[in-house]
């Protein structure tokens, strides 16, 4: 097991190198001069533009820029700055907690609602509750996140006033609506996935045996049915947590949450290569670490899976 | 198992935070606890160093934190005394400013004329790469400092603690007006010691002082500076600049009463403004001109008659009614009507006259194929298409190609003079002066003149107008404008409006020609 983990950790190194190179190249490839666009319709004077280009190595060829960037990262832990001179590291440490909170709340919300809805649907197969879950999940999956977010904001924020419309001013409560918007699709996927898994499980031999032994229905479903049906659900949720980062770009912008996603969005627009690379690399790391964790949990849930 | 415990710990942590915060919220009902506080929409400033801030997000904050030598009376758009109690000049070249004696920075430091000298020298120093340096180009000695041949501006001198002399390279009657710009605000000693730290919590001499640091992308809190010696201190006790990335979100917050002011409601909400806000909304005309520039360096656009025909073939009213709910002002001039110099129908060729346009276009041999340029993702698609439809209908220009691209790339193309047809651009006034609306855009030496158009007559008339006293310059600038109205290097389309919405807590919202609210004058009701 330890050897397996070490091997996986070593694989992180090329992943990080290649992803930073690709991201840097992509930002570099965006046409146009970012410094020229900084000031909008009213351009800055040539002298100021030139000194900024010099300061951010924008006059160098791509590979030199990238090398200078990586050199700074490895020799001085210098992740660069925005065009306004703010260190990228500052931005990440300020914004990471917001994104982590959002991801955490989303994870919990989608797990609770998804699992309850899925289980209820399976238990009440073909009855009203089941139909309700089936129809509502299709609707949710079909709706763009953008629409879901605005609907939530309008209904529960503005009209009913149950939750704040935007910002992080009210602690956990501020994250509920964004979390529902961010997790809506996965929530529906979890419900549908669990429903079908649980239906399969409930028809299997070991469940019938348990029922025949005279166990109560809740115990049969809870201990025997659910446990086996959860394996694919956990895999899905792990992978989903990793991909959730890209969803934060939209949701954080709409709900005005000062997290990493919002920053990526504005930095891509401003062509701030160093910021985009810093944050996206973090997302990549997040992705590979979570995948590793999911694989490990897999082994714990199902003893038949072993790693060498 | 470790990751699982981590996750639980995380959820638990935010839960306790939520409990603490919600118990605070219980003690303070909405609104009442906030008497005297104005909360306003803000976009994230690029910089909060006055010399570097050249965009509206920074200006919105800095104008409350700093007061320059002069201010603008927005009723008349004339310069009025601020730190300078009075000023005089015989020849519009050498100016003497008498400074008030009670001015202090928020840290108690006394403000003297030497502060202005130091600040101006620091701002123009190319090593400091300040955006607003270029506004100093009228000052004597600017070129030498910019070329690193001199350390200090020759034309800026402190005659004594409260007398400042500014000598210009050429006569410029608009100087007091220009000095109201935030880029001419004085900096305290502390700023020069550590400019980076200073920018996080600027110490100014204005009506409001920082309460804490600039929380990036979240908020900038300020409170009234009680030792402000000026005649008209701020109305609200506190101004809280709340930073939003998305105006649509801020719009909802004003609707819910959580935010007091949004000075640029999103265009897609224009039709709902009245339903949503009743009489707590207004559309304010600004000095920002939207136009289609014409690359006169291309052979087919050399003839002014072609440009005149293109202009006459656009029904501005129809586009404004159809796409902007009638909120914009059709341009009948280059000088914005919000300025005293602006005349609403000075432009003969801006009046819609499809028949005359067609005849003129035919006669001048205008091209029957066009490429039109605009920057993407900024809501220009629809109206640009509407304009080209009218050209098709009225001039028979059937084949139109659209080139839309990201702003950065777009600007590169303009600079390289690689444009083959009309292009969209706008021009906002940094300070409300006729000079500012004409010279930087159309004079032959202006770096922002992308049309390739140049006219000695125009340059001469501008120089004459600049040399005149501010009171006598009105007609002189209008004369220069006449040249543009005949030649049309760009086709003026309309002057932008800003749709402002506000909450029930405040009153007295006014917008400057630049499009910013006059925050210090807004009253907070209780």
TrEMBL record, chain A:
It is a multi-pass membrane protein. Coiled coil: none annotated. The chain crosses the membrane at residues 12-30, 102-123, 135-155, 175-194, 233-255, 275-301. Gene3D superfamilies: MetI-like. It is found in: Cell membrane. It comes from Nesterenkonia cremea. Residues 96-298 form the ABC transmembrane type-1 domain. It comes from the Bacteria. Keywords: Cell membrane, Membrane, Transmembrane, Transmembrane helix, Transport. Its main location: membrane. GO terms for cellular component: plasma membrane. CDD domains: TM_PBP2 (cd06261). Belongs to the binding-protein-dependent transport system permease family. This is Dipeptide-transport integral membrane protein ABC transporter DppB. InterPro entries: BPD_transp_1_N (IPR045621), MetI-like (IPR000515), MetI-like_sf (IPR035906). GO terms for biological process: transmembrane transport.
